[in-house]
Design goal:
With 174 residues, the protein is mainly alpha-helical. It is built from five helices and two strands, in the order ββααααα. It starts with 5 loop residues before the first strand and ends with a helix. 26% of the residues are buried. The chain has one domain. Strands 1-2 form a two-stranded antiparallel ribbon. It is globular. The longest helix has 33 residues.
Length: 174
């Protein structure tokens, strides 16, 4: 008899629900740590706001949401965003940061503020109802993943563009 929290993945191998749940908790914990550490390192207040909000969202998810597994990919994207923000602001004064990066961070802040409001409203309803069955709609989570991917693509393009410009400006003339 197979237990309901165990699933068969291939002949002779099984993955338990608890190990998947543990992996998700580790991913959430690691993402929160990366966001908090990056928040300490970046010079730009706007970036600090984005990182702090993302950390807050993942903390609420980690502590109260029933469907934590649905947020594993969000945690991964948050890790990538932290790296991207750190890379685009490393060693720069606020006045030296590309205005397009500032604009992207402003848009991202607005977006993550909306996510945080939604997640915290779910958390509040769960506490009010004295039931910790809070979960987020998978469709909403999928939209958030897509929006975060869009931000990451913008950062990659800007970073690549900056690298090309740097190479052109610093290449030896023929």
């Amino acid at each position: 008899m197979r237990l309901p929290w165990k699933t068969k993945t291939s002949p002779g191998a099984s993955t338990s629900y608890t190990s998947r749940r543990d992996a998700t908790m580790v991913a959430l914990t690691n993402a929160i740590g990366a966001l908090d550490l990056t928040n300490e390192l970046v010079p730009l207040e706007m970036a600090k706001g984005v990182l702090s909000t993302l950390s807050s969202i993942l903390t609420v998810v980690k502590n109260t949401m029933q469907n934590k597994d649905d947020f594993a990919e969000i945690a991964s994207r948050c890790n990538k965003i932290a790296k991207s923000i750190e890379r685009s602001t490393r060693g720069k004064l606020e006045s030296e940061i590309d205005p397009t990066v500032k604009q992207a961070l402003s848009e991202l802040q607005s977006f993550v503020d909306d996510i945080e409001k939604t997640v915290k409203a779910k958390e509040h309803r769960a506490v009010t109802n004295r039931a910790f069955s809070a979960s987020m709609d998978r469709e909403s989570i999928a939209k958030w993943k897509d929006q975060l991917d869009c931000f990451l693509r913008m950062c990659d393009v800007r970073s690549a563009r900056g690298s090309v410009i740097w190479l052109l400006l610093n290449s030896p003339s023929a």
